[in-house]
Each structure stands twice: as structure tokens, then as C-alpha cells.
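lol ok so funny story. i was supposed to be doing the assay writeup but got distracted and ended up predicting the structure for this chain instead. priorities right. anyway since i did it might as well share w the group, maybe its usefull for someone
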Amino acid sequence: MQDLDGRVAVITGGASGIGLATARLLAGAGMRLVLADVEAQALERAVEEMHTLGAEAIGVPTDVGELSAVEALADKTFDHFGAAHVLFNNAGVAIFGAIQDMKHEDWEWVLRVDLWGVIHGVETFLPRMIAQKQGGHIVNTASFAGLVANSGLGVYCVAKYGVVGLSECLYRDVSSHDIGVSVLCPMMVATRINSSERNRPVALGGEAQARPPTGDEIMAAQGDTITAEAVAERVVRAIRQGELYVLTHPESRTFIRRRFERIDRSFGD
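and the output, tada:
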């Protein structure tokens, strides 16, 4: 999608971090924006910022773990703008700790947002994007933890491996409709994801369940910490150039290579 001017982008998790940084760049490219986020006040501020940048934008409070909420997001997008050309399934949360220490509500919360949130976005927006016959692009936020297992991030890894698999399959399935697909797999980015339990529903443990990551867990997942703005630049490039994998940290390459070398060695001679 080289020509973004006048087209419509929908960004979940759009009120902060990577989502907001990407919204700023897309606004600069002339796109009209639908920002979705579970934090209503932050969302309101983000939409106001888009207006100051000269972009036409609306905000839709959305819990991506609820299918009905994502369906409402799609309805409001098409009612207001009549189309959607870029879908950035970016909303995400993280939890730290060994798998044996996880409770059922830990699994349910992370999978609900990080994997089902992406699934809800795809199943809700994709049929309409195909039907409008105007092409488009879908970006799904996964993680380096969706390509290589990380200690202390087992639940998060399961969700993000799912997002990578979904994106790779989707890339094959929708190419004939002129719809591109990218999967974003960063290491550590300067966002608030380490405090994402501030938005954890009470029914799934609430904020009281929060445990900050240990130093070892941060180091295992991190590499160099880069800015959300640097990631956003890579996301926009991937949209324009149709790149499947968006890998933001060069140091992740060695770990990814080693994983596939281990798989290859399992075949023996």
C-alpha cells in the first residue's frame, strides 16, 4: 500500500505506546484514523492529538477480548468512514512468571487479549475489507517471544506464537485479495506493557494479581530497549512495502537462527 493518503486505519491499543506512535505517522501520511483502546481517558487525549496533527480521527473505547466490542468497533468504523484499509491489531498485555506458577485466570486474561483480540479483529474486519475490493493491509503485533521461547514468559509466548502462526497463514490466504499482512515481532520497547495489569479485569484476577518482572525476566526478553517511534517507522514501512515479518531488533537474529538450527538437527542424518 504505497498510497495511504485519504485511506482509513484502525489501531487497537491506539492510545499509547506503539499504537499511538504509529497513529502519528499515519496521520502525517494523510490517513483517517480510528483509535481503539480500553483506557478511555488516554484514548480521548490521543484523538485530540490526532486532531491537532490535522487528521480526521475518532476514538472507540474497546476491549478487544470481547467479540461484541470489536464488532461494535467495526460498525462505528464503517458507519463513520465507510471503509477500512489498514487494520493494526496491536492491543496487548503481558504477565511474568513460570508456567507452573500460573493460574487459570492468568492464561485466560493473556490469551483473551493477545490472541483472541487479534482473532476478533481479523474475523470482524477482514470480510468487510475483502468485500470493499480496495485492497488493504493487516498488521498483527506479536513479539520476539512469538518466535523464540523466553523463560518466565510462557503464557505470553503461547499467545504470541499463536499470533505469528495466524499471521503466516493469513498472509497466504488473502494475497489474492490484494491485502497484505505483517507480523510485528519486537524485543523490548519503551512502552507500559510491563504494567499492563492496571487494566486487568477483576473477574480475571484484577490488578491485585500483578507481579513486576524480575531483572532476569526483563533481560531474557529484552535485547536493547528501543522507542515506540522506532517501531512505528518499521510498521509503516511494512505496510507500504508489504513485508510479512517486522523484526526491529538485530540482536534477535542469532536467537531465531539457533531455534531453527535446533529444529533442523532433530532430523539427524
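The domain at 8-265 is CATH 3.40.50.720 (Rossmann fold). The longest helix spans residues 104-132.
back to the writeup now i swear
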